[in-house]
Specification:
Helices cover about 55% and strands about 5% of the residues. It is mostly helical. The longest helix has 26 residues. The chain binds coenzyme A (COA). Coenzyme A (COA) binds next to helix 15.
Length: about 375
């Protein structure tokens, strides 16, 4: 704002600012409630599937059987990525960060979708289906490419969750693990105006294409304060190493004003409802693998952070140990977040295109004024 009378103290990090109207999802931070298009996340996690949730986020209602089958078929037809993109990925440095690879490869999908720049609903929906089908293939392929393994072709008989695990690990998941992972994808699908979703809406608001908006979302998700937290939770657990060291480790971290990854949330002031499910999965996986250490360590950190800071775990806290016990490499946790969040991003982009207004807020200017330009040789 340019004048003192117009000036309002900017809210740090836009906390509490309502920046868009949306019918897609709502986070009630005081009650720990999350809804997608009117449905409670617990109800969806209990009864729905990730593909059904995608339809819900994009269309505002649950699908009828024929609509569900149609969307499922279209997504599966798009599991395959262009051979050129795969060839390009094979030339990337093998130590490239998986989120950087995902960002670059998703961006390049645009070259091979000649209609991908359309922002009308029909074209944008086609692009959304394509990216949703392809993003898991890219994320899984990179882990194989960097390890010198053959890329596993997607299997159209499998749902997104099963297919991703199959392409990543080379073998099909058992029914329990597949269902658990499908629920994990449901839980990560949308979260209102989180940093990456807001980013996608800002880009879409310029009427840039779906691929560009999603690429920007991936860049935002990668940060350790957002989706990157899940990888960092597991790094922290491994660094602590032993349950007996937790109390001292947490005390030191708090003393040094370091943040404990996977704890705290910008909106939730109580239990994150997604963490309720992931805590259960972390325990289940621990029991299945006979390795309870990571779950127990996480529980102790949760307890300490609640006692000392009144804080709660977020979605990333227990997903870390769950994925670890599923044999998923640490730096693939955030790409998995993207494989799910693509549904929310594309839903928000479709909503933005449908009722677009360029997003262009103001900054509260706190710099100097009325300085006189001095030639370079005369500057102090
Ligand atoms: N560990 C320790 N202290 C934490 C903390 C954490 N994970 N998260 C917040 N705090 C403390 C801050 O140090 C700060 O303390 P101070 O007031 O004494 O300086 C206070 O709580 C407020 O922190 P702030 O970062 O301003 O709150 P926020 O509402 O912006 O935080 C997050 C939201 C998610 C960014 C923050 O909790 C965080 O960084 N968590 C860890 C990263 C993470 O898990 N991200 C995934 C989110 S889904």
């Amino acid at each position: 704002m340019s004048t003192a009378t117009e000036s309002t103290a900017a809210s740090a990090g836009l906390r509490g600012v309502v920046a868009a109207q949306s019918a897609i999802g709502d986070v009630n931070g005081d009650e720990g409630k999350l809804i997608y298009q009117g449905y409670d996340i617990h109800d969806l996690a209990e009864h729905s599937t990730f593909e059904e949730v995608i339809f819900l986020l994009w269309n505002g209602r649950l699908p009828k059987q024929d609509e569900f089958s149609d969307l499922q078929a279209k997504i599966r037809e798009n599991y395959q990525v262009p051979a050129e993109v795969m060839e390009m990925m094979k030339r990337f440095p093998k130590d490239a960060d998986p989120m950087d690879v995902l960002r670059t490869s998703v961006s390049s999908l645009d070259f091979y979708d000649k209609e991908g720049h359309g922002t009308d609903r029909e074209h944008a929906m086609k692009a959304a289906i394509k990216i949703t089908g392809q993003i898991g293939t890219l994320a899984a392929a990179w882990d194989r490419i960097r390890n010198g393994k053959d890329v596993i072709a997607p299997d159209q008989s499998l749902c997104i969750a099963e297919n991703f695990l199959y392409m990543l690990r080379g073998e099909k998941a058992d029914a329990d693990e597949a269902r658990m992972f499908d629920i994990a994808l449901i839980l990560h699908a949308d979260h209102e105006l989180n940093a990456s979703t807001f980013t996608t809406r800002v880009v879409a608001g310029t009427l840039a294409d779906m691929y560009g908006a999603v690429t920007a979302g991936i860049a935002a998700l990668a940060g350790p304060l957002h989706g990157g937290a899940n990888t960092n939770v597991m790094k922290m657990l491994i660094e602590i190493g032993d349950p007996s060291k937790i109390d001292a480790w947490v005390d030191k971290a708090l003393e040094e004003k370091r943040k404990i990854m996977g704890i705290g949330h910008a909106v939730y002031k109580t239990e994150d409802p997604r963490a309720t499910w992931l805590r259960k999965f972390s325990k289940q996986m621990g029991e299945k693998k006979g390795e309870m250490k990571w779950y127990e360590m996480s529980q102790r950190i949760e307890q300490l952070m609640h006692e000392k800071k009144g804080m709660f775990p977020n979605v990333d806290f227990y997903s870390a140990s769950t994925y670890y016990l599923m044999g998923i490499p640490l730096d693939i946790y955030t790409p998995i977040f993207a494989v799910s969040r693509i549904s929310g991003w594309t839903g928000h982009i479709l909503e933005q295109y449908g009722n677009n207004k360029l997003i262009r807020p103001r900054a509260e200017y706190i710099g100097k004024r009325d300085l006189k330009y001095a030639p370079i040789g005369e500057r102090q």
